[in-house]
Specification:
44% helix, single chain, 371 residues, six-stranded mixed sheet, 9% strand, alpha/beta
Length: 371
Amino acid sequence: MPAPTCASCGSARAALRRPRSGQALCGSCFCAAFEAEVLHTVLAGRLLPPGAVVAVGASGGKDSTVLAHVLRALAPRLDISLHLVAVDEGISGYRDAALAAVRRQAALWELPLTVVSYADLFGGWTMDAVARSTAGSGRSRSCCTFCGVLRRRALEEGARLVGATHIVTGHNADDMAETVLMNFLRGDAGRLARAGGLGSAGEGGALPRCRPLHLASQKEVVLYAHFRRLHYFSEECVYAPEAFRGHARDLLKLLEAARPSAVLDLVHSAERLALAPAAKPPRPGACSRCGALASRELCQACALLDGLNRGRPLLAIGKGRRGLREEPPACAPPAAAPTPAPAPPPPTTCAQQNDLRSRSVTCAYQTSIGM
């Protein structure tokens, strides 16, 4: 059966049907529609004002590659300037290849690039070092928790270094739906309330952040990269298979198979979510150590680093944790003497066992007839 004609231009053969709408489009018309939708997201949400210096979080993966390419095409219409900011987390066998992809993109598109590293920003800590530190604590599966917090801080520092006024990241609709699911499954009302919307306005001196691909599905991001012939780094992080996000991703795939609109339904649900006053998180303040936005005495990044530096990473993550600055008791109370186990009952003879069974049957019969 021949391919249908493109529903947009009416001349070329359609190369795909859009996963969300089912519309048959050729590759050129699809890319133009994708870029127009990103432009609409930016303008309708007033995400990037004219004259903004935009730090693009560049990882070398498909999302950040597509984001940088689209914003580069839209930059003259939006009157913005772009600067790529990449983060070196210190993951051997993975990050070096990803950074090489970012450097090739920056050279090809003639965009300035700045690379900041965990080791320089966080007192020598790299993700490999964090993984070694947490391996024996039962928290080795939480590497993505550490990395997510530290990466957010590193991107903020890199953006300030280049004089950016705004930060953009390549989170797509699937990423946002996974985050909503994770927060539901964890019962984390505070994060659930913050998950909606297209970004953050930049409270407490933090730079404004936005996600222009917030409503673009992962399938269409991949299709755009394919038709624009964009080269990106596609290997998964060595620590990702143990992350909790993988379970949310698997669940989302099952939901999407049964209900194709599940991804956007979850995204829009988070946007419209209203929490009861008692469930709303407290208004954030400033970290007592670094001055960053924080809902506790220490921001998440300082709290995690404090736990790592003290050799107590268990205290650095998890709900209801004890304060990180709280020292353990200087002298633990002496352990109480163990209570001796009661002596086992003497063995019963066969006659005694039969007598016990007979009494039990008699009692049950009397109960059943109301005696």
